[in-house]
Amino acid sequence: MSDPLLLAILALTTGIAAFVQGAIGIGFALIVAPVMGFLAPGLLPVTVLVLMLPLNLLVALRERDAIDWRGTAWISAGRLPGTLLGLGVLLVLSASGLNQLIGASTVLAVLVALFAPVFRPGRSACLSVGMITGITETATGVGGPPLALLYQHRPGPELRSTIACCFLVGEVLSLAILALAGKVHAEQLKWAMMLLPPLLIGTIASRVIHQRIDAKRLRQGVLLFAMLSGLVLMLPL
């Protein structure tokens, strides 16, 4: 595939994904990572992680008053060991095998969530999700489903802003460890810079809709995205 065509496809995908993430709090990596995995797997996970830095910063700042700082702290504490484990997984497991494992786990988590009672995220749950997210996002660039399921019963602003804040901390950590391991390359960064304009356009456009989504529809959207992403990731590359 020629670079102009690849750029056009990835730019459109990035803009749509940024809009979805800005509107409901998750969706960027769930949309971009599978497309990038099929068309340009060498860009994963670094390009996705770099693109998510400005995206999550904008979302976190937009609704910063709703951030669950206690939950963010415990999730971030679990993120460090998870990130190290994610690097180990990236080094030993094939992309196809990892995606299938993550996909199956995500689908199972959604099925459990459909029957789980309403709850408020506690310390143990936050630590566990932080570790799981560290593993999956460092290895593949996809870390949204566990966080989304953790906050699925919380108000929309809290879900969006807290997930964005957790992502922001975790992505910096993941990129730092990947860089130390020699997994960050100039080509990945170049593509991230080229995809920055559509990302910003999608994020700005999401401001029109994010306040109009009620809690029930938000939860449905969270579960739908998690289920679809799990099924997509289970497909062999």
Q: What does the model show?
A:
By secondary structure, the chain is mainly alpha-helical. The chain has one domain. Helices cover 78% and strands 0% of the residues. It has 11 helices and no strands. The radius of gyration is 16 Å and the shape is globular. The mean pLDDT is 85.
Topology:
Layout lengths: L2 H22 L3 H12 L6 H17 L6 H24 L2 H21 L7 H18 L3 H7 L5 H25 L5 H9 L1 H11 L8 H19 L4
Helix pairs in contact: 1-2, 1-10, 3-8, 3-9, 3-10, 4-6, 4-8, 5-11, 6-7, 6-8, 7-11
Shape assignment: globular
Give the count of structural domains: 1
Mean pLDDT: 85
Termini, distance in Å? 17 Å
List the helices and strands in order: HHHHHHHHHHH
User: What is the number of strand segments?
Assistant: 0
Strand content bin? under 5%
Q: Helicity level, as a percent range?
A: over 70%
Note poorly predicted spans.
Answer: none
Largest sheet, strands/sense/barrel? none
Structural classification: mainly alpha
- Total helical elements: 11
Radius of gyration, taken over Cα atoms and rounded to an integer in Å: 16 Å
Provide a brief overview of the structure:
Helices cover 78% and strands 0% of the residues. With 237 residues, it is mostly helical.
Relevant terms:
11 helices, mainly alpha, globular, 0% strand
